[in-house]
Design a protein that fits this description.
Length: 221
């Protein structure tokens, strides 16, 4: 359903990842409705203190920084449950009850009545493998992975950020671009995400992300 928009070489793909990683860190902050601007985010990533930014927000930014460093350094590594947990271990460090491990208790999601079940390790492994081995494009697999991790609420915290990061791992390693939700699309994204939580039908959300959030490098012939 979702063809690959980009067909980048490994060098082009890694260049794109390094060029856009600060935007993806900022995207992760806005997905969590954190009150930071892009200039503040970039300044913190540059190692400069920013007044009036909370310690919690600084921690979240640095966590995303470390997750992206890990992603770039392991771009060719296979995706396993352990790899996914390691991504969450960076993202949710010191934010959640536990980080880097599947959730073992119930959670609720603000804005919806949907109550995600406690994840089962065997089922989670099976679903991950099903997505990875599916006969579809890298872009479709990445969008499916994002929706699976996000609605499944596999972890105590950081599920949207973890889902976005692992989706980007799939895109980058395949040369299919990068997933970034910009400010002007964030409100609509949140509306569609809430609908997805309630209905379990991710079609509209994936279509929106495909049209508005897959970016790349236009390479001349």
């Amino acid at each position: 359903m979702f063809s690959d928009k980009f067909h980048l070489t490994r060098e082009q793909s890694l260049f794109l990842a390094k060029k856009k990683w600060d935007e993806n860190v900022y995207c992760g902050m806005k997905m969590e409705s954190r009150a930071v601007t892009f200039p503040q985010t970039k300044t913190i990533l540059d190692g400069v203190n920013v007044p009036n930014v909370s310690l919690d927000d600084i921690q979240a930014i640095l966590n995303m920084r470390d997750a992206w460093r890990f992603l770039i350094n392991t771009a060719d590594a296979p995706i396993t449950l352990e790899y996914l947990c390691e991504i969450n271990g960076y993202i949710a460090r010191n934010e959640a009850l536990e980080w880097g491990k599947l959730r073992t208790g119930k959670v609720c999601i603000s804005g919806t009545d949907y109550a995600p079940p406690i994840p089962n390790e065997e089922n989670t492994r099976g679903e991950l493998e099903s997505i990875i081995q599916s006969d579809s494009t890298a872009t479709e697999k990445a969008l499916e992975m994002f929706t699976f991790v996000t609605r499944g609420q596999l972890f105590w915290d950081g599920n949207k950020r973890t889902g976005m990061t692992i989706a980007n791992k799939m895109l980058i390693s395949s040369g299919a671009g990068i997933l970034t939700i910009t400010d002007n699309h964030m409100e609509r994204f949140n509306e569609l995400l809430c609908d997805f939580y309630n209905s379990g039908d991710g079609g509209a959300l994936k279509a929106f992300l495909y049209e508005n959030a897959i970016h790349g490098i236009e390479v001349g012939g």
